[in-house]
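Researcher: I need the complex structure. Ligand is zinc ion. Inputs:
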Amino acid sequence: MKNLKLLSAVPFVALILANTSPPVGVATDQTAQRNQAVAEALPIADQQDFEDARRGLLAQLETDILNEDGSVAWKIDEFDFLDGEAPPSANPSLWRQSQLSAIHGLFEVVPGLYQVRGYDLSVMTLIAGDSGWIVIDPLLSAAPARASLDLANKTLGEKPVVAVLFTHSHADHFGGVLGVTSREELQAGKVAIYAPYGFTKETVGESVLAGNAMSRRAQYQFGANVPSGAAGAVGVGLGPKLSAGSIGLLPPTRELSTDGETLDIDGITFEFVDAGQTEAPSEFVFYLPQFKAFHAAEVVTRVQHNILTPRGAIVRDSLQWSRKVDEFLSRFGDKSEVMLASHHWPTWGGDAVRDKLRNQRDTYRYIHDQTLRMANQGLTMDEIAEDIGEPDFAKTDFGVRGYYGTFEHNSKAVYQRYFGWWNAVPADYDPLPKVEEAAKWISALGGAEAALAQGQKAFEAGDYRWGARLLQTLVFAEPDNTDAKMWLASTYEQLGYQAEGGTWRNIYLSAALELRTPKENDSVNTVTASVLAALPTLDLFDALAARFNPAKMQGEGGILAFNFPDTEEEISVDLRQSVMFPRVGSADAPVVTLSIQRSDMNRLLAQETTLPELLGSGAATFEGDVTALGRMFGALDSQVPYFEIVTP
Ligand SMILES: [Zn+2]
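Model: Output:
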């Protein structure tokens, strides 16, 4: 009798819960309470940041920023909903950061030095030189960059752009360059472009070799498909959001050396310091003695940055990062009366600048040293992330809080840098793939119904981290289980509502969105012919090799030769076995030799033309067995911009 009762109890509970729908788009009591506790623990009402973020406002854009095709690149009132107190569906600390990031306009930092903020993820700085504008970091896409420049010209008087600086190799700092100048002006010598050491290699390398998967993952990090709103996307922490315009690139006139240089650019002195291998592999910062201003690029902003960005990147060096910030502090801390960056608003006053630099330095050092201290005590990556906590100064300096990077995931990055992905638990060295394991777990839990009941129970208890693990396992095991997907979506949503990290919120809300309404491919392909044009030819072939699928190689490959008459380069490609290996130089006994302009090769790979078209017009010619080319190109996987993340 007793046993019978027990047996019937489980399905009964499951039935009750399965009939309840999970809440959608509203904070639960547990989430509301947790967010309230954050508001009470932090000096949310402090107004200094708001005063600084509004200081020097000269003018604002009043209408949407449109792309050439009429589509909206930036919606001007998108973040108006942030006015007022944080709702229960948002972490009040992130809400505050989002309010600050959304403050927009043209601002005077000090006379002669200006910023346009709030019209993209990043910030554009303008300096009035002797003969025109020096533009630092022309945003992510052309239309916002052009609108920002127009606003400056209209407000401060029309000037030509005579120099552009790309502070580092991330697209939100160069992608809008065609909005402030043109290839023609560059070729005519009317504008000079300065970039840090290694800029071209790092820029293109990242976006071409791993770019497709990064773009898809970046949709989660930036909440690209999540509508803005109190129960949706509120900001990325680093800035409001990515603009939706066209991304371009012009090659730098000059890449600086790693030693640091002092240059006069249109009458303005720049003391450059190389800061590569910190926030980006290629980056510089600079001091402007005429303005007593230190521009920290993206090495020091008003967030804790990512040691490992969720979209994916090669893990960064937190120790080097903290040492570099210390170098800035010791070299420029006593001279600087203002510090500005390529995200967020400036810091005025020597004491405040020094405090900011010290806190940033100590944040990266804290993450580094505490991770290693605990690892050396035998803690695993997950345990360290749970225990790392935060240093005392993070309670008062919002600028080091985890709006973009967080102490939790950054400690995992440090662990990864030193120890790799394995936590030293042997069962984790060679586990079954997620989906295969999920089916076994669900079976071990007594089946889908029992697992769902446990997931719902976790939700009711506000135990969302556990609930997400359990329900995601169920969805991997049963991707068509709609109840499981809806409860998982609501679980992710509550995690998003509680998150202080803009990236975390976006990741969870993107997951919820895709579970509720699966979306078709709408990812932006970042690889255009103009981006490929900046890529050295061997790197271009390396990118092709990273798409080579041996299973698709039909018949004999042999050695293929490519001649580029316009760049006077030759590449041989060894395709004799399951690898595509490119080498600089001429080939011995190639099966085919293709002569093609490098510029046509870029267009071919950006799918702006086809090989038959180029051969037919005579733009490209070949000698030997042309079918070998067909076999090679036929064995390249096309990129899949949209791939499943929260379902198998
Ligand atoms: Zn940036």
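Model: Summary of the prediction. The CA atoms of residues 381 and 419 lie 9 Å apart.
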